[in-house]
Amino acid sequence: LKFVCFGNDGIDQHMIWLIGLKNIFARQLPNMPKEYIVRLVMDRSHKSMMIIKQNQVVGGISYRPYLSQRFGEIAFCAITADEQVKGYGTRLMNHLKQHARDVDGLTHFLTYADNHAVGYFIKQGFTKEIDLEKERWHGYIKDYDGVILMECKIDPKLPYTD
Ligand code: ACO
Question: Where would I find the H helices in the chain?
Fold first, then answer.
């Protein structure tokens, strides 16, 4: 099992994994238009943290780091059906937090969580209470109806991975 994080950088193996991840999102998030998923996953301002098992992508999180604002917006998060509830979703989020803090310099994540995924995000340390000052995110991320904005503060020191 390995964890990798990159965006659309034109490297063949990375493109194969990003397409695999896009397909997992399309299947696991059936309410999301497929074109929208492709656009964000392949967008050069987004990056994806992925779990690779036997050279196959089994899940990932695509996010947009707003480096000047020091927060990231999680766009999509999913684990392929036959690998769910094995703890991969938790390990994935921990690797993402570590990377976002140590490589991107982020202090917070925000995400619009689907209703049924709120429980998963709460277990990952997200809250419905937004502590991040509005000036830091207002105008950077869209306001939606019917989805729940959630926040996670990234600990400045905690080792998230072993
Ligand atoms: N509701 C409540 N709790 C949950 C849910 C859920 N939907 N999913 C997992 N959990 C819990 C697990 O029971 C586990 O709890 P425990 O630590 O007490 O045992 C904990 O969260 C973590 O479980 P993992 O095994 O690490 O989670 P998994 O690998 O299954 O990944 C995920 C969770 C990503 C939500 C997966 O179920 C999935 O891909 N679901 C379909 C796609 C989806 O809904 N994605 C999120 C949409 S919102 C967005 O993308 C911004």
Answer: 12-28, 34-42, 88-99, 118-123, 134-137
Q: For ligand 1, which residues put their CB under 6 angstroms from it?
A: 28-29, 74, 76-79, 84-90, 111, 113-114, 116-117, 119-120, 123
Segment 4-56, tens digit of pLDDT: 999 999 999 999 999 999 999 999 999 999 999 999 999 999 999 999 999 99
Give a yes or no: residue 162 inside a domain. no
Rounded distance from Cα 39 to ligand 1 centre (Å): 24
Q: Is 35 a catalytic residue?
A: no
| ipTM for this prediction | 0.90
Q: Domain with 10 in it: what CATH number?
A: 3.40.630.30
d(CA 6, CA 46): 8
Q: Provide the domain count of the chain.
A: 1
Please report whether residue 58 resides in a domain.
yes
